[in-house]
Amino acid sequence: MNAHKTIELPTALLRDSAQGSTWHSQIPDDKAMLRAAVELTRDIAVARPGIYWPDMIASALLGYAALAAAILVDNTAAAVLLGVVSSLALYRALLFIHELTHMHKDALPGFRFGWNLLVGIPMLIPSFMYEGVHTQHHARTRYGTIEDPEYLPLALMKPWSLPVFALTAILLPPALLIRSAILVPLGLLIPPLRTLVWERASALAINPQYRRRKPEGDFARMVFWQELGCSAWAIGILAASFAWGWRPLAIALGVVALTALLNQVRTLVAHLWENDGEAMTVTAQYLDSVNVPPPGFFAAMWAPVGLRYHALHHLLPSMPYHSLAEAHRRLMGHLAPGSTYGRASYSGLAPLLARLARSTMTAGRRR
């Protein structure tokens, strides 16, 4: 396995981050890698409905079945185990939102509607929260800059920022419930609140300076119906809890909190987070991103739906998740040992978290 824990570059390419720059902005594009990524994968670039639909539906149904069992069972240990199973299954189902953002509208007819109906609205995370947002993260001139909604220079921040970043995820479930059940309906009566909720609480973003633009056209109509569905569902959940007790809701919130925490930890290792705001080449973006290819077994659990190949995804954003493993195999076989492509591969979650923690401690000493 080609596992790399550091990226070694000539000293001449290194620049003092305290002066407002990093080595990323000086990495030229590896044109041979970029060309190979496109040419070697043309025949596997089509999304296959026979994989997407069964995977998404089975994940969602397993998640809901395990959640129902966790609520109904009397044994605490069994309830916890079922809650973990539910969280992992719903995590996989939720991450299809990432595929939706890159999928052509005609690629899988009905899949967006089906996902929102089965997963997005019940989980209060409709697809509009990611659509139109995540693609900005892939924009050539935005990645790693202040205009990137999904980037923070975590490796250059204080060490305590990492646990705070991860643990804030457990606040997401109650925040989503409050948003859909209270803030969105109130926004119909209070326009400034509606604007605030849209700009600051309607996108799956980690950049606190990101402000979302007002939706327009067909997208605005889609947002309306998804918001209506989420608000009706959230209000119904609260009404049912008042009538029949809060235990089911508390367990459901705990399961979703675990899902959110798992996703936040995955986010910590999706990139190296070493850019401090300058625009980067595509190759630099690739090297600031992470692949965790096999044989690691657990990566398929904490980075499902193709996200273990996150660096490769930044080379081929529209490649369907079920083709990424084959694309990786082809590129590794085609490109020479020690090529740029192999330098984005890492061995697992723990080494990546350790690397990030060391980076924050080093950055802290520089200040």
UniProtKB/TrEMBL annotation:
Regions that span the bilayer: 51-73, 79-101, 113-130, 164-190, 219-238, 244-262
Keywords annotated in UniProt: Membrane, Transmembrane, Transmembrane helix
Domain (Fatty acid desaturase): residue spans on this chain: 78-337
One Pfam family from the record: FA_desaturase
InterPro entries membership: FA_desaturase_dom, Fatty_acid_desaturase
PANTHER family: DELTA(5) FATTY ACID DESATURASE C-RELATED, FATTY ACID DESATURASE 2
Entry protein name: Fatty acid desaturase
Classification of source organism: Bacteria, Pseudomonadati, Pseudomonadota, Alphaproteobacteria, Sphingomonadales
